[in-house]
Each structure stands twice: as structure tokens, then as C-alpha cells.
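Hey team,

Sharing the Carbonic anhydrase run so nobody has to redo it. Sequence (264 residues) first:
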Amino acid sequence: MGPQIWPQKFPIASAGKKQSPIDLNATTCVVVKGDQGVHVENGLKVEYPKQFPELTVQNTGYGWKVDIPDDIGRQTRVSGGPLSHVYRLTQFHCHWGKDLNVGSEHTVNGKSYAAELHFVHWNTELFSSPADAMPSNNGLTVLGVFLDIGNERNEELEKLLQNICLVKYKGEKCKIAHNVDVTKLFPDNKSYYTYPGSLTTPPLWESVTWIVYSTPILCTADQIAKFRDMCYVTRDQSLIGGELLENYRLPQPINDRTVTFVTL
Ligand SMILES: [Zn+2]
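Structure output:
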């Protein structure tokens, strides 16, 4: 079920005023220097453990997703910057496109990147579970990281990709053989765009404080190509094809929202 028909089942897809993704436009956003104003005493803090052992990757039928077990989630903490509460990592996943010119959900001055990672966090101060937080105001913060094409394989991504062929079909799950250092999936330069928005897949709830890093991380075209070998059908249905060639939503109207660019 693609984005074109989402409005039939989820009216917020077209009626909502805070939908995501959006185009992040340098000329219209408010620029804040990271060492000035509100960001001085209380800058954005992303605290993750060095290793995430025994993670499981799964095919959701819309892409791959890595759930974070709560005992590891408890060691993560995102706070400060645009956030008034403390948030905890619950899962991360990726969006990509049929070729390298498309794939990211957010665009920057109209430009797409080849893919975009989403690290989904829930508000542990106001809610008792991710399910409670997900539909609610200030329920979630999602950190977005663009993937751009470079000459070298991304080694952390490679740990996930070694298992991607084992979750080719919808519903399949597999333990990741190596410890993943999730912090290596973030860029060194932590300048970011932030704005109030929504989940980019149904039910499209407008509960997300978005934080999208302006600097991409790098991987190879071959690595992105492996994502496209996944299928949105189950193994039983596999004879009819069903490759997951793309899984991104196009930018939505900004309406009267303010996008802030924090430069660091
Ligand atoms: Zn996403």
C-alpha cells in the first residue's frame, strides 16, 4: 500500500497540517548558532552505549527495522536542544529509492540523498511505553541521518547488511552477528534541522519532534543496492516478485511551521 492511497484510510495524510517529511530549505529556516541563545546551557545531547549487542533485524514489509530491547534502550538518552523531555531509543530503520538520485524522505534545498536512517525515540517522562507515546503530543523524537555515496563501505551498515539476505521476505527476522556501534551511524558534524512533524508511514501521527542532521554519512552504491533486494511480500508469495525498490514518502507542505537550523 503506497503513499498515493494513504489518504483514503488515513485522512491525516492530506488533512494534517504537520506532516513529514518536508523540504529543509536553508533560505526559509531560522538559523541558530549552537553556541548562542537557548542552545547554550541546554544543547541537544544524544547519549548511547558504545556497543549494542545481539540486535535483531527484521523485514517489516516496508523495509528493514532494528528493534532495541528495552534493557539496552534504557542505556540511551536523548535530551536538550529543542526537546523539553527525555527520550529513549526504541528502533531504527531506513528509507531508500529505486536509484541513487532519490531515497531520502527529507530533502535539503530540493536535493534528495540516496537513503535516510531514522532513529525513533519515545518520551519516557510522560509515557510508560512506546505504544503510549507514539500517538501523543511530544511523544516521539526521531533523529534522521542522510546516506550519501562515497568510495568506502560503511562498516557499521555492513554488519546489518550481512544479515539482510536472511530477512529477504516480509516477517522474517535474524540476529545480527556482530555488536553494532550505533554512534558510528551518525555524522561527526552534529549541525541539525529541527521542526514539529509526523510519522512518515501510517498512521502518520503528528507526534514527532524531528531532528535531521545536515551532514550525511557515507556508504557505497552496492550497499544501498542490497536494500533493494528485499521484498515486501512473504516467502510464500515470493513467486509474484515484490522487490522493495523504494520506500520513501515525498515532502509535504510546511504550512506555518518554523524549521530551525542549529549550526555547530
Ligand atoms: Zn522512517
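DSSP finds six helices and 15 strands in the chain.

Ping me if you want the raw files.
A.
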